[in-house]
Every structure is written in C-alpha cells, then in structure tokens.
C-alpha cells in the first residue's frame, strides 16, 4: 500500500513538472510574402514576421497591420500580444506616395493569403486567423475582410477569417487615398475603397475599437459608430463597438489589446491569458 502511494506521488510529481514547462516562442523575421516578384520595392516592403508558440498546435493567429497613415510605419510584434498562447504575424506593406491606391490594399490581401497558406507549417490552423491592425492597419484589415474580391484573387474566401478587429481605422475612404486624388481630409468620401461601402450581414465577426470621441482623429469614433450601426442594419449578428474614454488615437491601442485578446478567446473557444 505504501508503494502504491509512492507510485501515485511520483506520477503526480512528474506530471506537475511536465505541466510547469513554460511555452517557448520563436520569431521568424522578414519572410517575403510576394516571393516571386523582382520589383525592388516589393522585395523591400512586402515582408512579415511570424511570432509563434513552439511545440504547440492549432493556436489562433493574429495578423497585425501597423498604422502610419499608409505613408509611414514599420511592422512590429505588440508587446501586449507576446506570450499569450497565440501567433502574431506583423506585416509591412508598400507606402504612399511611392505607390498609389490600391497597391497597399492588395499587399494586405497577399499577406493574409500567405498566412492562410503557411501558418500550418508553424503549428497554427487556418480556421483561427484574425485580420487586425491600428489606424491605417485597421482600415486595411477591414477592407480586405469586408470586400471579398481582394482575397478571392489569391484563392482565399474572406469569410474564412475568424474575425476582423479594427483599432480606430477609417470606415470611410482612407484620407491618404483621398489625398492622392486631391481631396482634403475633412471631405468624407464613401466609395469602393471604404469599408462602409461593403457592409454585409454575412461577414466574419467584426470588432471596432475607438479612442475617446473627443480625442480621436477627425471623426474616427463617429465613423466606427456608423459602421457598427450599418452592419447591424445589414443583419450582422456579431459586430461589437468599444469607445475607450480618456484615450486618444495613439494611446487607445494599449488597452485595445485586452479587448482583442478577449474576442480571440471567445471566438476560438481557447483560453488566452
């Protein structure tokens, strides 16, 4: 009987030690998601980083597009998303004025398509991919997720996205696209390059996060609120709107990551710390 208890104690101790082994994470940098191109600027800008948990399978993946008005910015892995049991794919894309619309939207679609095609090589799964980003990045995520034509050209159905999480992105046509046409930033336009133009009830779950309406850029909160309302009217059952009181356009991203992780958890039914 004593030996039996010793055996049980040994097994439990071994299990506890195994369970206590921390998850390790790996970062693979500057993977070209347009590898067949010979264009120097594409080869420079169309790269992504993959941050993922090793020895783990079927984890969710967040595709993160940086902000910068489509005229600047660099890919990065948000600190708030590290060591959370998920993969983060940080994407660079071509910038205006070196390229014009719709080159950067097409880059966003190509990057997401690359993730669908390759995340399984890192242990992830194609049914837990989220398109996300801040400001210009949120706009790109929403455009590619709502207008199915962008991913369709790469053989991917946008509705296979697990969700779209948009941090303070334009719902109207982006101001840089308007600037390329000589339209001032205070003149709102809703055309085929506006996520609002593509509202539909059968889109993936959509999470809209905005800073304080009095501190945000231009009418960014109001755009998000109208986007939310029109998605509801279109019959969308899983659209969410958050306003982060006291946070301006730049500062809202940090608390926004908690909202992102919550929805990744809920939409994949996976425990995310």
UniProtKB/TrEMBL annotation:
<keyword id="KW-0378">Hydrolase</keyword>
<dbReference type="InterPro" id="IPR050300">
    <property type="entry name" value="GDXG_lipolytic_enzyme"/>
</dbReference>
<dbReference type="InterPro" id="IPR029058">
    <property type="entry name" value="AB_hydrolase_fold"/>
</dbReference>
<feature type="domain" description="BD-FAE-like">
    <location>
        <begin position="48"/>
        <end position="213"/>
    </location>
</feature>
<keyword id="KW-0732">Signal</keyword>
<dbReference type="GO" id="GO:0016787">
    <property type="term" value="F:hydrolase activity"/>
</dbReference>
<feature type="signal peptide">
    <location>
        <begin position="1"/>
        <end position="19"/>
    </location>
</feature>
<protein>
    <submittedName>
        <fullName>Acetyl esterase/lipase</fullName>
    </submittedName>
</protein>
<dbReference type="InterPro" id="IPR049492">
    <property type="entry name" value="BD-FAE-like_dom"/>
</dbReference>
<dbReference type="Pfam" id="PF20434">
    <property type="entry name" value="BD-FAE"/>
</dbReference>
């Amino acid at each position: 009987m004593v030996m039996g208890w010793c055996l049980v104690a040994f097994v439990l101790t071994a299990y506890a030690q195994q369970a206590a082994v921390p998850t390790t994470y790996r970062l693979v940098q500057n993977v070209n998601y347009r590898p067949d191109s010979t264009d120097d600027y594409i080869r420079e800008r169309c790269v992504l980083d993959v941050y993922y948990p090793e020895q783990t399978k079927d984890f969710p993946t967040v595709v993160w597009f940086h902000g910068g008005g489509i005229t600047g910015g660099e890919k990065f892995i948000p600190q708030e998303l590290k060591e959370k049991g998920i993969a983060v794919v940080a994407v660079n894309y071509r910038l205006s004025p070196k390229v014009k619309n719709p080159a950067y939207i097409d880059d966003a679609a190509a990057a997401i398509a690359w993730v669908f095609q390759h995340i399984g090589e890192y242990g992830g799964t194609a049914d837990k991919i989220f398109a996300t980003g801040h400001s210009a990045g949120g706009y790109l995520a929403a455009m590619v997720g709502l207008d199915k034509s962008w991913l369709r050209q790469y053989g991917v159905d946008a509705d296979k996205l697990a969700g779209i999480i948009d941090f303070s992105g334009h719902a109207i046509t982006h101001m840089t696209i308007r600037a390329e046409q000589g339209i001032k930033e205070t003149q709102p336009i809703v055309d085929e390059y506006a996520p609002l133009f593509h509202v539909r009830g059968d889109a993936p779950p959509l999470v809209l996060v905005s800073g304080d309406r009095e501190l945000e850029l231009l009418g960014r909160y109001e755009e998000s609120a109208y986007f939310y309302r029109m998605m509801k009217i279109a019959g969308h059952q899983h659209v969410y709107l958050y306003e982060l009181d006291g946070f301006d356009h730049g500062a809202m991203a940090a608390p926004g990551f908690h909202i992102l992780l919550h929805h990744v958890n809920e939409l994949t039914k996976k425990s995310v710390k």
